[in-house]
Automatic annotation (TrEMBL):
PROSITE patterns: D_2_HYDROXYACID_DH_3 (PS00671). It comes from the Bacteria. This is Glyoxylate/hydroxypyruvate reductase A. Residues 108-275 form the D-isomer specific 2-hydroxyacid dehydrogenase NAD-binding domain. It comes from Aliiroseovarius pelagivivens. InterPro entries: D-isomer_DH_CS, D-isomer_DH_NAD-bd, NAD(P)-bd_dom_sf. It is an enzyme of class 1 (oxidoreductase). GO terms for molecular function: glyoxylate reductase (NADPH) activity; NAD binding. Its EC number is 1.1.1.79. PANTHER family: 2-HACID_DH_C DOMAIN-CONTAINING PROTEIN, D-ISOMER SPECIFIC 2-HYDROXYACID DEHYDROGENASE NAD-BINDING DOMAIN-CONTAINING PROTEIN. Keywords: NAD, Oxidoreductase, Pyruvate.
Length: 310
């Protein structure tokens, strides 16, 4: 029997996704029609981009699952019409991309690269930066992305501590949880990386009180989500120099409005939500595997806990 798969993703990426998903579906030997235009009550699976115009899932009475193309789920998880299971994207390409971005920005600050990139008159004789073993990195969020980034940083000799909701064990990483655990991580983060999801529980997790727990001059790198940070508190801490620099990839409003104070702040780097992206070739395999599971009545991978919001 043939199944129907609706692509509700970015139309600009339809060609590449059509090619990669068709190939991956062929490999699992399932007969399927993949289209951006199908009658709702005939759809078995929806491949979904949370930016898509599709917001009402009620007509999709036959859909066995909605298969997200994004790792982040805050735009969809609270949608009351979403009664179908929602599997988010956990993709090797996405993880590799995030690790490269995080390591790159950690190294920028660790090696004080800006001193030479922006300075045409370098100070001969200045001390070399400390070794990685003497620069402490904290990671809030030890999920699919935080865990891999933490491992890459420990492989470079950075002492890494991380924080998650539940208890975790990652070789070479000091894993903590709970309020005390958060304080412990913050107090020993010369560089702090945010890789938490945006949920009701994580909103403003980095507030004034918690920013004050960071060592003087700490660097904050946020590729997680904008609402994790109390922006007013961060700007105030940057002005005082308590936070030495913030590299921000995500914001409450995107694109970041022209008049946002982050643009003008000398100690802020704004990047346009570019830390990592789903890679169609690897993501197509994840989607096909979930369709295979759905058709063999096996549990889906990467299901979102709608109550926890991630
Ligand atoms: P996961 O769901 O795999 O991991 C989330 C982590 O956050 C887990 O360790 C989880 O704890 C922890 N967490 C969640 N809620 C809390 C809480 N209340 N207190 C403490 N810890 C908490 O997500 P991913 O690693 O795949 O992705 C993380 C985020 O990265 C995404 O949600 C998205 O916002 C962002 N992202 C950004 C991109 C970009 O280009 N800027 C690209 C892709 C993703 P536990 O392990 O105990 O469940």
């Amino acid at each position: 029997m043939s199944i129907n798969i609706l692509y509700a993703g970015n139309p600009k990426r339809w060609d590449v996704y059509q090619h990669e998903i068709s190939k991956a579906i062929e490999e699992i030997e399932i007969e399927a029609t993949l289209s951006c235009d199908l009658p709702a009550d005939q759809v078995d699976y929806i491949i979904y981009d949370p930016n898509s115009a599709l917001q009402d899932f009620t007509p999709f009475t036959r859909a066995k699952a909605v298969l997200g193309l994004w790792a982040g789920v805050e735009r969809i998880v609270y949608n009351p019409t979403l009664t179908q299971p929602y599997a988010r994207m956990v993709d090797q390409g996405l993880s590799e991309g995030m690790t490269e971005w995080v390591v790159g920005h950690v190294l920028r600050h660790h090696l004080e690269m800006d001193l030479d990139i922006h300075n045409t008159d370098p100070a001969w004789g200045r001390l070399a930066p400390p070794l990685a073993r003497d620069r402490r990195v904290g990671i809030l969020g030890l999920g699919e992305l935080g865990r891999v980034a933490a491992k890459a940083l420990t492989n470079l000799n950075f002492p890494v501590s991380g924080w998650s909701r539940g208890a975790k064990s990652i070789d070479g990483v000091t894993c903590l949880h709970g309020d005390d655990g958060l304080e412990q991580v913050l107090r020993c983060s010369d560089i702090l990386v945010l890789l938490l999801p945006a949920t009701k529980a994580t909103e403003n997790v980095l507030n004034a009180e918690r920013i004050a727990m960071l060592p003087e001059g700490a660097v904050i790198i946020n590729p997680g989500r904008g609402p994790l940070i109390d922006d007013v508190a961060l700007l105030e801490a940057l002005d005082r120099g308590h936070v030495g620099h913030a590299t921000l990839d995500v914001f409450r409003v995107e694109p970041l409005p022209d008049d946002d104070p982050y643009w003008a702040h000398p100690n802020v780097t704004v990047t346009p939500h570019i830390a990592s992206d789903t890679r169609p070739d690897t993501a197509a395999k994840v989607i096909a595997e979930n369709i295979r599971r759905g058709e063999s009545k096996e549990p889906f991978l990467h299901l979102v806990d709608k109550k926890a919001g991630y």
